[in-house]
């Protein structure tokens, strides 16, 4: 099967997707930008040098959106004439709600939940070196039980890629952990494990988790609860890691708080529920950096 993909956002996840698309025999190019050199290093030490081709200006049939959530609509705007209802858009991002205000015509959207961790540094002479700290599961889904025809070919070459009919639940399960761990580590400038070691943070940790469970029970009948226990387990398993939100704050970049805790606040507002601890921490994170 020969498909041509465009990739919007050539950071950590976009580069990983580009690599596996090529492994599966699909052609690809970047959307809206010139060619970009990348080096991708896996946790086992394997490295691959990639030259990601620049935009070909063609109509976009298959698109991977891998920008930061806040950049989604501005980045898509100049591509709108090349998109249509026949376009498939795979949203490979953290957080939820980045496409809520996407104007028509609407493409077919497939959501992704990526659980791999990576960091990057400049390459000598230009480009970026992407270091995968851990390659974990990547889930795709659009609410239907059957994946598209191209999915099997891609899954044969992308380790731990799977299709999930329950993608909305999977998105919320990841969001719930990010909404506890990310803002606390960013606010207190600590690694994930410090959330468990510092007893002063436990009340906020628990309050954030309790508010998530209260909201999710209203919106998702299948919600398993136990967000605090799952967040503690993740913080312990990734004790030495720096969250993406902490990294953004340290670098002076805008965070994805609007699409993590802010998304929860918007959902709660629609049903008349208050989430005071999430309201508080969103304000505190925004005070650290305002675009």
Automatic annotation (TrEMBL):
Catalyzes the NADPH-dependent reduction of ketopantoate into pantoic acid. Belongs to the ketopantoate reductase family. Pathway: Cofactor biosynthesis; (R)-pantothenate biosynthesis; (R)-pantoate from 3-methyl-2-oxobutanoate: step 2/2. Keywords: NADP, Oxidoreductase, Pantothenate biosynthesis. GO terms for molecular function: 2-dehydropantoate 2-reductase activity. Signal peptide: none annotated. SUPFAM superfamilies: 6-phosphogluconate dehydrogenase C-terminal domain-like, NAD(P)-binding Rossmann-fold domains. InterPro entries: 6-PGluconate_DH-like_C_sf, 6PGD_dom2, ApbA, Ketopantoate_reductase, KPA_reductase, KPR_N, NAD(P)-bd_dom_sf. NCBIfam families: apbA_panE. It catalyses: (R)-pantoate + NADP(+) = 2-dehydropantoate + NADPH + H(+). It comes from the Bacteria. Transmembrane segments: none annotated. Residues 166-285 form the Ketopantoate reductase C-terminal domain. It is an enzyme of class 1 (oxidoreductase). This is 2-dehydropantoate 2-reductase. Gene3D superfamilies: N-(1-d-carboxylethyl)-l-norvaline Dehydrogenase, domain 2, NAD(P)-binding Rossmann-like Domain. Residues 5-142 form the Ketopantoate reductase N-terminal domain. Its EC number is 1.1.1.169. The lineage of its organism: Bacteria, Pseudomonadati, Pseudomonadota, Gammaproteobacteria, Oceanospirillales.
